[in-house]
Amino acid sequence: MIITGINGGSRVLEQILHRKLRIGMDVAGRPVDVLAVGPLWMGDLVALCYIAAVIGVATGTYHFVERPWQKRFDAWAFRMQRSRRLTARVGGRCPRRAEDARSCP
User: Residue 97: in which H helix or E strand, if any?
Assistant: First the structure.
């Protein structure tokens, strides 16, 4: 996603600035477009921005996708575990686990 955004952004910037930002290279017999923004330090700056973007997207994904679904699953698992305990006690059968069997008459 990030690489696609950078690739599309470089194409748009090429049209706006009327300056070629990518060069074609031959790598292992295959033509490849390479982002050539200028001096080496500029390429390093682009690489650092890319790394920061990856870390930012990963952080956002963790906070807005991973954690909420973890909390939902934990709540669901807690409800399931609690309902199984109640079913075992109310159902008239003693539970199979030894620690639960102690509370059984």
Answer: none
pLDDT of residue 42: 83
Return the structure tokens found at 50. 């890319």
The 3-class secondary structure across 32-71, one letter per residue, is EEEECCCCHHHHHHHHHHHHHHHHHHHHHHHHHHHHHHHH
Helix (H, G, I), strand (E, B) or coil at 18: coil
- Residue with tokens 């059984």, as numbered in its chain: 104
> Using alpha carbons only, how large is the chain's radius of gyration in Å?
28
N residues, the chain:
105
Among 40, 38, 35, 36, which Cα is nearest to 5's?
A: 35
Residue 26's identity, in one-letter code, is D
72 pLDDT exceeds 90?
yes
